[in-house]
Design goal:
Structural class: alpha/beta
Radius of gyration: 19 Å
Oligomer: single chain
CATH superfamily: HUPs
Helix content: 40-55%
CATH topology: Rossmann fold
Number of strands: 6
Strand order of the largest sheet: 3-2-1-4
CATH class: Alpha Beta
Mean pLDDT: 92
Largest sheet: 4 strands, parallel
Number of helices: 13
């Protein structure tokens, strides 16, 4: 049975296992991966969409450290009236701190035009418009990449992939994904280790697809809870039916996570580009 391999008694033990990975080794592996993809693609630049959140900040810092700041271009893509002033301020703080070139492209006009053109045929609700914003950002990234001979770095993490918290052909579309084998809580730890400011690493996650949008508000659970359940299932091999035997894991939370996984299976059928696979179980 599963506890002959590992027997975590509590969520604290699982958290300790999840965060006990070698930060230096992992950042080195990801750096080698980025350099290999960059070299093989014969690209002139890596393009990173920077939101001001921990995932995009970590991806940016790893890219700059791996191929040099001259080979990275950041796109900051706010939507007037939706993107919070704090997120925009944080994005500018990051490009200044990492001394990397950037371009700001306002999304409101482009996205509003799409909404206006489609409005006679379908109802554009908040979520639909949010997905339009996510896809328009990826269109913008690829327009720059295509015109300047570059490749797009995806910024999604493993937590988002497993629960399907991404937009098809939006943030799910990129040429490679440096941090997609790290859970959100692991990304936060790695980010601190490579020099991402603490105000970013500790900042609540937000896709910023509508006003006041937060990830945990939409998901209904904290990433810490989600990650502990995901890590227990996918890395420790604990059957979902036995998770509630672990102190601190509730049946309600397990069913909530399982529901997210089941309801988003169609998203994971997409063919993903290159992902850096890491060994971060210990």
């Amino acid at each position: 049975m599963w506890w002959k391999v590992v027997k975590p008694e509590s969520t604290d033990e699982i958290r300790k296992m999840m965060l006990s990975f070698d930060r230096k080794s992992v950042s080195s592996e990801i750096g080698n991966f980025i350099r290999e993809v960059f070299r093989e693609s014969r690209a002139r630049r890596i393009f990173v969409g920077l939101s001001g959140g921990v995932d995009s900040a970590t991806t940016l810092k790893l890219a700059v450290d791996s191929v040099g700041k001259k080979n990275v271009l950041v796109l900051i893509m706010p939507h007037h009236g939706i993107t919070s002033p704090k997120d925009l301020e944080d994005a500018y703080m990051l490009v200044d701190k990492f001394d990397v070139e950037y371009v700001t492209v306002e999304m409101a006009d482009m996205c509003s035009l799409v909404k206006h053109r489609l409005a006679p045929y379908i109802e554009i609700n908040t979520k639909t418009y949010g997905n339009i914003i996510a896809r328009m950002r990826m269109i913008t990234l690829y327009a720059f990449a295509n015109s300047m001979g570059g490749i797009v770095a995806g910024t999604s993490d493993k937590s988002e992939r497993l629960i399907g918290y991404f937009t098809k052909w939006g943030d799910a579309a990129a040429d490679f994904f440096p941090i997609m084998d790290l859970y959100k809580t692991q990304v936060r730890i790695l980010a601190k280790n490579i020099g991402v400011p603490q105000e970013i690493t500790d900042k609540p996650s937000s896709p910023g697809l509508w006003r006041g949008h937060t990830a945990e508000g939409e998901l209904g659970l904290s990433y810490e809870t989600i990650d502990i359940i995901l890590f227990a299932m996918y890395e420790l091999g604990i059957p979902a039916s036995r998770l509630t035997e672990i102190d601190g894991i509730s049946e309600r939370d397990v069913q909530h996570v399982l529901g997210m996984i089941k309801n988003t299976e169609h998203k994971r059928r997409l063919i993903y580009p290159k992902v850096q696979h890491l060994i971060t179980k210990r």
